[in-house]
Design goal:
Elements: H1 2-18, E1 24-26, H2 51-61, E2 70-80, E3 87-96, E4 100-107, E5 110-117, E6 121-126, E7 131-136, H3 141-145, H4 150-158, E8 177-182, E9 185-190, E10 196-203, E11 208-216, E12 223-235, E13 238-249, E14 255-265, E15 281-282, H5 285-289
Parallel strand pairs: 1-12, 7-15
Antiparallel strand pairs: 2-3, 2-14, 3-4, 4-5, 5-6, 6-7, 8-9, 9-10, 10-11, 11-12, 12-13, 13-14
Length: about 290
């Protein structure tokens, strides 16, 4: 059991950290019904809409950001594609806007590991084996190459539009997107991302982002990444997804991480930083990711 818990911690950290690496990026997993996409969603080929129409739609989607500073939720965490068995643990997601995103993993009521993203660095703690990783975003090469920082990762968890490396927690500039239409969805593509192409699939009737698909500009790179959102519920006056599914495929291993959230609250009463015991051993990013990829 100790070995399985370690794999779960490493797999969660590896998938979240490597989800947007520059040459191994998006996904082909089966989309949920809410996404309106298929398992092999093609790159949009429809004619682009006018700049005025695109800007109007982006301005309609961006205000869906909640005005609450904090969100906490219970989580069911499930990982597939690692070893011969699926891995499932309970957890807790805690977020404070522009400050921290923390995913805690629990087993039998005890915290066995956590991932904590702040504007300064990334922290991964393995409480089972008393070890941890702390690294700046510039130290994680594929995050640096893809111009991904805390604010981009925060937007993924908050289900919001972003432009890698340029938003810093603010609503993105509508003029930096192109838009196409596919069936009943609008597809927003931020411009000026030289290594990766990002496609946000948005539902115009519900004003929600149902899927982010990321592919490499280099067509020789087969790796893909997708982040699907489903089961929207009202939270602080907006629709918030209680089901999130992230998948990396086309690499040496196809790995999927699913989060099912419940008991959403705007609770600000918690410690926003994790203190690591001096008894824990510090590891490198390469040591952690090398266990999975």
């Amino acid at each position: 059991m100790k070995h399985l818990l370690y794999i779960c911690i490493v797999a969660t950290a590896g998938l979240l950290l490597s989800s947007c690496r520059s040459s191994k990026s998006a996904s082909k997993e089966k989309a949920s019904p809410a996404t309106g996409t298929t398992a092999t969603t093609p790159i949009p080929s429809s004619a682009t809409t006018s700049k005025a129409e695109t800007a109007a739609f982006v301005k309609k989607i961006s205000p869906q950001r909640t005005d609450k500073q904090c969100l906490t939720a219970s989580a069911k965490v499930r990982i597939t594609g690692v070893g011969s068995k699926d891995l499932s643990v309970n957890g807790q997601l805690r977020m404070r806007r522009n400050d921290v995103v923390r995913l805690s993993l629990r087993f039998l009521g005890m915290e066995v590991g956590l991932l904590e993203f702040t504007p300064q660095d990334v922290l991964v703690v393995d409480r089972v084996n008393k070890q941890y990783v702390r690294a700046s975003y510039s130290e994680v090469s594929f995050l640096r190459q893809a111009a991904l920082d805390f604010y981009s990762l925060q937007s993924l968890f908050w289900n919001e539009l972003f432009i890698p490396g340029r938003d810093e927690g603010k609503a993105p500039d509508a003029s930096n997107f192109e838009m196409t239409r596919e069936q009943n969805l609008c597809i927003l593509t931020p411009q000026g991302t030289p290594k990766l192409t990002y496609h946000f699939y948005a539902d115009p009737s519900q004003q929600t982002i149902n899927r982010l698909q990321v592919v490499s500009v280099n067509k020789a790179d087969k790796g893909q990444f997708a982040w699907n959102y489903d089961s929207f519920e009202r939270f602080s006056g907006r629709s918030f997804p209680t089901s999130m599914q992230m998948c990396v495929s086309g690499t040496s291993k196809d790995v999927t991480l699913s989060l099912n959230l419940s008991s959403l609250k705007a609770d600000p009463d918690w410690n926003y930083r994790t203190t690591v015991s001096s008894k824990y051993t510090r590891r490198s990013v390469q040591e952690v990711l090398g266990k999975l990829f």
